[in-house]
Each structure stands twice: as C-alpha cells, then as structure tokens.
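Q: Given only this backbone (401 positions), what sequence would you predict?
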C-alpha cells in the first residue's frame, strides 16, 4: 500500500493555527514546554527582530490530510558569518514517530539546502542557539523547563540514524537541596569581602521600574561574555528587547544580580521563577487572559527557579566574581523559600560554569546537544536525486514510499 506524506509551506492564517496547535503526541506533550505562540507568530509573519537577518519559512507535514509534523527552516547571515559557511537551521520542530514523516522532513531540509546554497544543516534552533535551541539527548523521562528543550528519544534516534552529529555537547543542571538545614551559601562560596573596597565593587539587583534601563546596561556585557562561543552571535537591542519582553512582570528582583566594578557591569546572573507548568497547561498561549492569570497567581511559582543566563567579562575571568554572585544568589533563593534551581545547558568544555552547581550540591540533569550534518557537494548538486523522491506541485512536496 502506498503511503504519502506531504510537506506544505505555511502561508495562511489557517496554516499558522495548525502550526501552533500541533504538539508532541501523548505523553511527550506534558514533558515539553512549548515555545510561546507570540514568538512563533512573530517568526511567521516577519515581525520577529531576527527576520532582518534571514527569511523564515515554516512547513506542515500532512498524512491523509492530518498534520503529523511541523518545522521552520531558515538561514541567518550572522550565524553564517560565525561558522564561515552557509547553514540552514531547523527549529520549532515536532514530528510524529513515523518513518515516513522523518523521510519527508529530511528530504525537505536537503531540498531547501539545495535551493539556498547551504552546505550544512544545524538545529534545533528557534531561531538561533542563543535564543532557544538544542535537544535533550538522555534521561527522556525527565520533563523540560522554560528555555530548555524536551526531546523525545525517537526523534533523537532519527537524527542519529540519518547521519547527524552532536555539537556543543552540554548538560542541564539541578540543585535541589537549597532549603536543607546544612545548606550555607556563605561557606560554600568563599569571597573576600574586603575586595568590595579595594576593587570598588558593588552588587546591583533587578528593578522592575528600571528594567528597560537595566536591559541596555546588560546587553553589551552579555555579548562580550559569550563572544568566544562557537554558536553565539551578537544580540542587538531589538532582539534583546523582544526576548525579554514582559520579563519585568515575572522576575523576582532578588534573583537578577549584576556586579559593577568602578561603576561598570563586569558579571551577571539572571534567574527567573519556574513557570514551566503554567506554560505547558496553556500550551504556550500567553494571551491577555493567561497573562493576567499568571500575574495574579505568580506567588504559586516560588518553589523552583531557572538560571537562564550568566556571564563574566572575559577581561575579568578568574576574578571570583561569579563566586560572589552565586553566594548572593543562593542566599536569596534560600531566603525566598525556593527549593530547587534548574540551569539551562552548560557546555562540557566550560567546567568553570558548572563548578558553581557542584559547590551547591547540584548534579547534571540531562545531556544536551545540537545536531549538525555536512552536505556533500556532490549530493547537493544532484538535483535529480532529490527530484526522484520529492515532487513539487502547487507549493507542496510529496514524498512517496
């Protein structure tokens, strides 16, 4: 019996709704924290700030007129420059556990790579690794959390089987003994406080009323802190404002810390209350009603927190500034009644960053990675090979068994 899976580009409002509504099959949907609808809509209608660096195309995969998968495909000129070659990125990707769906997905990427002239596939990234991306590749019975993907084992296996390689191997982390009687940040994170005077140091905290100004102050430090990482591209003001829009209503001001030396920020830590369960329950739809619901119930989400990002000006590496900030962070977490701290992925090549979690009695939670695949020049140039498996008709590519 012939089985057809088609890949249809997302163009209409109806297509966008289908794209937003599609999620992992049960039980995986309750483990994955979806990307916010507002972010995906901005990607698809060209209003996301990153759209100026490359067009974003979205696709639905259909089988018997039923949606069985979705993905975005795009290229970003800043990412291409960073890697030194043209790359096609896939993101927002959800696929049913079906070999024919995988065939349609991989054939579509290679077709689009051919059209765009890309020589490498990279992802998942929505839209870039420094925005949201990567995949959990171990402990598949552990749910994801905000800013950290959950990826079903069958999808990871499909990527491996199709010749994708792991890049930027990392781990997410958990510290879950914060309220233990013996947990003492002062003794765990030693810092000589006489340095406050000798080095003219000052700790600043988040301020909801001054959040716009604090964003502008922190952005140059964020870009400088991560400039040497292989996947990181500089974030501009528009992108940063978009990524942090509404954060001032969510943050616990005591969990956003930055250290100034001579009045200039040199290190920072951003931790937010964990609202993962809320985002899952509302399926990523933070409309006005759900925003108000979250705002008035925000005190419910003070048992766990998520370390989103931290960094130090490379000129002050090894200064102990992160030790100081983590001392204050864990003191504030304990005082605030938080029991658990999760951390987004930390590269295995960056043991200094994970050392703070080890000091606090933390442990790795899940292995994490990006996937990449180099496309052979001969294969990219062979249009007939793709045409034999993909027939393009009226904006629809059909893959047949």
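A: Predicted residues:
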């Amino acid at each position: 019996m012939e089985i057809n899976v088609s890949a249809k580009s997302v163009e209409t409002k109806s297509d966008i709704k289908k794209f937003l509504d599609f999620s992992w099959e049960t039980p995986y949907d309750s483990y994955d924290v979806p990307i916010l609808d507002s972010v995906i809509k901005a990607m698809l209608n060209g209003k996301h700030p990153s759209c100026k660096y490359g067009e974003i195309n979205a696709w639905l995969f259909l089988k018997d007129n039923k949606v069985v998968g979705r993905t975005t495909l795009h290229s970003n000129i800043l990412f291409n420059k960073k890697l030194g070659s043209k790359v096609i990125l896939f993101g927002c990707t959800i696929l049913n556990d079906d070999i024919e769906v995988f065939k349609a997905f991989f054939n579509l990427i290679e077709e689009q790579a051919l059209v765009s002239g890309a020589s490498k596939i990279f992802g998942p990234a929505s839209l870039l690794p420094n925005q949201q991306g990567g995949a959990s590749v171990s402990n598949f019975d552990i749910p994801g959390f905000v800013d950290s993907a959950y990826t079903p084992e069958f999808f990871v296996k499909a990527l491996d089987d199709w010749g994708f390689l792991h890049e930027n191997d990392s781990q997410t982390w958990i510290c879950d003994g914060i309220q233990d009687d013996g947990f003492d940040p002062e003794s765990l994170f030693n810092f000589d406080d006489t340095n406050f005077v000798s080095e003219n140091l000052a700790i600043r905290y988040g301020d909801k009323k001054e959040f716009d100004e604090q964003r502008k102050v922190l952005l140059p430090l964020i870009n400088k802190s991560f400039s040497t990482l292989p996947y990181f591209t500089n974030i501009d003001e528009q992108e940063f404002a978009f990524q942090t829009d509404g954060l001032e209503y969510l943050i616990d001001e005591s969990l956003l810390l930055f250290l100034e030396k001579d009045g200039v920020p040199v290190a920072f830590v951003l931790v937010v209350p964990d609202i993962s369960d809320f985002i899952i329950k509302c399926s990523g739809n933070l409309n006005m009603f759900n925003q108000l619901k979250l705002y008035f119930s925000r005190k419910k989400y003070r048992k766990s927190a998520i370390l989103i990002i931290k960094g130090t000006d490379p000129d002050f590496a090894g200064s102990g500034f992160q030790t100081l900030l983590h001392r204050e962070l864990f003191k504030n977490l304990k005082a605030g009644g938080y029991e658990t701290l999760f951390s987004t992925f930390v590269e295995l090549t960056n043991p200094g960053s994970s050392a703070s979690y080890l000091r606090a009695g933390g442990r790795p939670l899940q292995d994490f990675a990006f996937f990449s695949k180099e496309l052979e020049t001969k294969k990219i140039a062979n249009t007939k090979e793709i045409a034999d498996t993909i027939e393009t008709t009226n904006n629809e590519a059909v893959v047949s068994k």
